Amino acid sequence: MNQHTLNVLEFDKIREILVNYGSSGLGKNLTQQIQPLTDVHQIARLIAETTELKSLLAPDHWLPLGGLHDLFPLLDKLENGAEILQREEILLIKETLWASRNIIGYLEDAGESYPYLLQLAHAISIYPEIEAKIQRTLGTSGEILNSASPELKSFRRNITVLRGRIRSKLQGILRSKGVTPYLQSAVVHERKGRPVIAVQERHARRIPGATRDKSDSGNTVFIEPEAIRGMGNELEAAMNAERAEIVRVLQEITAMIAAKVKPLRKTLKTLAHIDMTYAKVRFSRDYEMNPPSLNTDSVINLNNARHPLLLGLQHSGDLEVVPIDFRLGDNFDTLIITGPNTGGKTITLKTVGLLTLMAQSGMHIPADESSTVGVFSHIVADIGDEQSIEQSLSTFSSHLRNIAEILSLSSDKSLVLLDELGGGTDPADGAALGRSVIEYLHKRKARTVVTTHISPLKNLGYTVPGIENASVEFDIETLRPTYKLLIGTPGSSNALMIAKRLGLPREVIENAESGVTQQDDNTAELINQLQAAKGIAEQNKAEAARTKAEALRLEHEYRNKLGELADKEVKMREQLGREAFKTLRTIKDRIDRLRRVQTSQKSLLKSLGEICGYMAKALNESPEENQRQKFIDKLKPGDQVFVCSLERVGTLAVVDVENQKAVVQLGAMQMTVPLDDVEIDVSVQG
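The chain above was modelled as a monomer; its predicted structure follows.
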């Protein structure tokens, strides 16, 4: 991306905010390198990772990143041949490996609902053998533990025994009448690792032994008595062995780490990426951001978009940010925003540019989730301070150089942002140059947003297809901008009204008004009328949207009720099926019992009668039987009926409800059939 564009859109400030959200030096260093990307798949992945992590941590949970350290300098040191790391460095590695295991566990617990987070978790390697070795070797403050090796433990035990023997011997010497008068103090000291006694300097020759040290004043001499020199030599040898073993153990740990440098680098990169993603989540959460949809058609559609740096001021209570709705690349490729300086045209320009840069950097943006952002190969901007009292030639030349570079990069994959195009020179020349630049960009299908004071440029929005006018709404009654972007309505400078509000003398205002042509008056009046009509149209649109939403709600409610009825029907059928099965099971059990027990004909008939009664009761209580009875009650002579057993249609002649029979005329003959054998003729019913 063009560095000048990143500077004028203040992308570095967004990056600075994001760095401050980092949890470790590892993540902060990577976040400091964030740049907008152009690969839509890579961008989509970064946004998806942020979205998943934000969802996992919702509403306000924290990711356990404690213990992460930037180990890359240590890994560089190992690759350059270092044979031994310092204890503090080894502890940093231990803490980072511990943090790695914590992060893996947290992300893996999220499950398959978070596929991108699982991929990050699987990219982290763990090294339990290195962790265990460090755990056995170093304490929390870096001290070497006895458990570092059996040899070290043995050396230290020997040292303790020797120190005890030497101390006992020295205690005896200190109590000796031949020594006590010459002592500076009656305690055992230690110099250069060897036990000594403190002797007055003027009596040092009276104590046989080796001088190991002197006090700063020179009044005290520290002497190792001859009687313990042999044991002292043993102690020194044991301490040297201890130091050598410590070096060996540290070299062993260093070698274990050095053997894993390459996979450790990969793990560190993943951990840095996770920390950076978490920083994005915290940024998104605090600034109420959402993930935008991406497209490769160079279409921007922002709903309720807010400038993130202004949101920071809003959080501190300094101002209230008015969200804007913005679109570009659907019905038009070029948008010309006109109107007074107080209306926030430049803020609109910067909001669109900065949010696009943020999206292409894999961040959420401060806009509604329905927003979509195109992925551009170039985002270029020329934004300067055009509101100063005077514009020098050098400033104008600088703008022209920027515009020249912008024109050379323009294509249908470019987003071009030009602030106050045509300013800084003669208005007529500025208008001609501005028109030519806009037409050049439009022919190349660059997505272009222009702000300008030059009224003739508005005509392009009326005469050239694909170029649209816009303005930042200005309240004529209060003479204050509302900061709401009105696409389709050109802006009026409202200069004279603003001048009145700012207190210019009446004579100046009247002279200015007399110099305005009638055509200019008509144009300004037309623009004001258009703004008013636009407001009414938006109100109508909002009302239509509310009506549509209510219709959709009612439709959704109706469909839900239909679904509930269908569910109830299924459950009723299942219940009826269960009851029918229960009835059949009872009948079967009774018949089985009858076959096993009954002997006499009288008893058999009685039992069969009971079974029939039970079946009749069950049938009479079923919904189907109630419906069947209603059908029979409605039958009358002359009805067309279907005789099931004969599979023929006939005319009902007689209905005998008492005996449950019916006489049906079938052609030239009549047939008597059970009422249960009669159904309504479907062809007649239809």
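The longest strand covers residues 183-191.
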